[in-house]
Write a structure and sequence with these properties.
Order of helices and strands: HHHHHHHEEEEEHEEEHEEHHHH
Strand content: 15-25%
Distance between the termini: 38 Å
Largest sheet: 4 strands, mixed
Structural class: alpha+beta
CATH superfamily of the largest domain: Butyryl-CoA Dehydrogenase, subunit A, domain 3
Bound molecules: flavin-adenine dinucleotide
CATH architecture of the largest domain: Up-down Bundle
Length: 385
């Protein structure tokens, strides 16, 4: 567990960095569907995006706990962490499952900010949450795998040098378990585009830079296989706990952002000759949201501590993500209500954050699937699917 002073220092430094990118910076990007290149560069230069990379590979070797503090502060500042959060955790697949040669090759470059690995290609349009039914195939042909198929909602691919891709290398019918026969690959996006990979941006509710991908005989060098052929599902699964904890921390940041704004406005806004926050009908929902967000943070902390101690944390990571994503959404709703009509004015920034935080009840995993995990794996109730 890090010293409290270290955590305070991290918080302070991230807060100072984010303060240079005010809310109008994020509003302009949202309007123009732009990518926050300067922000991501500043976060990379400061080392905050690569804290999870061990020192031996050029990172600072900190834990998910510190990473959670960073993402929480980023979101609390009004920023949209979705533009870059994956740079923190996608590299975990290389760290945990890559060969030593792959680690030596990729991790120092990622740590130095020379390459971005912030794209993760799993979801497909026809199979969705049913990951093991995905239809994209990778067939070994000499020194290459040849990939065909389609992905959807693959975020940041246009701003990423590398992508971790999940594809089927053995037909499901020929495996003993549906989780077998999937493989993970490192794709060099620059080389792939125009040579078997086509990217089409999706016009979506938030500025998340998500795309559809079409693979038509894309060749991936054999040495880009990540981990063991046929065991790619494990590569993906192992990265999920860190991702969920960090997303949960972001939701807590969003929730605190909404509560800060709502309580300030409720104190300042005078209607009927008194601050609206003097009315308990306005005050109590904000206080309730505060309570929910702070409770969610305790679960984030618990999950992060377990993760960093190398202990099982699947239940806690899932619960943290569910609690935090619901708490931030409710805080957003209350913040909207507190601001009345002004909540709809873009210059108040609330509606943008409201849209952004809604994502996390659906991605990277939806609430139902979390409940299913808890029901089956924690409470040992019958398996549903
Ligand atoms: C903005 C955005 C960014 C994304 N970025 C990425 C990315 O970078 N990489 C990537 O691989 N994916 C990404 N995704 C995809 C995301 O992970 C999926 O959208 C999510 O996992 C849900 O899958 P689906 O959309 O196919 O929903 P579906 O699987 O079609 O499910 C639809 C609804 O039905 C419910 N449901 C389905 N089956 C069951 C069941 N058995 N029991 C109960 N309820 C069920 C789900 O909970 C959900 O609410 C992104 C999505 C969005 C919107």
């Amino acid at each position: 567990m890090p010293e409290a002073s270290d955590i305070t220092d991290i918080r302070h430094a991230v807060r100072q960095l984010c303060a240079k990118f005010g809310e109008s910076y994020w509003l302009d990007l949202d309007r123009d569907r732009g990518y926050p290149t300067e922000f991501v560069q500043a976060l990379t230069d400061s080392g905050f995006l690569t804290v999870l990379i061990p020192e031996a590979y050029g990172g600072s070797g900190l834990g998910v706990y510190e990473a959670s503090i960073i993402m929480e502060e980023v979101c609390r500042s009004g920023a949209h962490a979705g533009a870059c959060h994956a740079q923190m955790y996608v590299m975990g697949s290389v760290l945990r499952h890559g060969s030593e040669a792959q680690k030596q090759y990729y991790l120092p470059k990622i740590a130095a900010g020379e390459v971005r690995l912030q794209s993760f290609g799993v979801t497909e349009p026809t199979t969705g949450t049913d990951t093991t039914s995905l239809k994209t195939t990778a067939r070994l042909d000499g020194d290459h795998y040849v990939v065909n198929g389609q992905k959807v909602w693959i975020s940041r691919i246009e701003h990423s040098d590398l992508m971790v891709l999940l594809a089927r290398t053995t037909p499901k019918e020929q495996t003993n378990k549906k989780t077998e026969g999937l493989s993970a690959f490192i794709v060099d996006v620059g080389q792939a585009v125009g040579n078997g990979l086509e990217i089409q941006p999706i016009d979506s509710m938030i500025n998340h830079h998500s795309c559809e991908l079409f693979f038509d005989d894309l060749k991936i060098p054999r040495e880009n296989l990540l981990g063991v052929e046929g065991e790619g599902f494990k590569v993906i699964l192992d990265g999920m706990n860190a991702e969920r904890i960090l997303i949960a921390a972001e939701c807590v940041g969003d929730g605190r952002y909404f509560i800060d704004k709502a309580s300030r406005y409720a104190t300042d806004r005078v209607v009927f000759d008194r601050p609206i926050g003097q009315n308990q009908g306005v005050q109590f929902p904000i206080a309730r949201c505060y309570t929910e967000v702070e409770a969610a943070w305790l679960m984030v902390e618990k999950a992060a501590r377990l993760f960093d101690a190398g202990e099982a944390c699947g239940a806690e990571a899932n619960m943290a993500k569910m609690l935090a994503s619901e708490a931030s959404w409710r805080a957003g709703d209350v913040c909207m209500q507190t601001h009345g009509g002004f909540a709809f004015a873009k210059e108040y920034h609330i509606e943008r954050k409201f849209r952004e935080t809604r994502l996390y009840q659906i991605a990277p995993i939806s609430t139902n699937l979390i409940l299913s995990f808890i029901g089956e794996h924690v409470l040992k109730m019958p398996r549903s699917f």
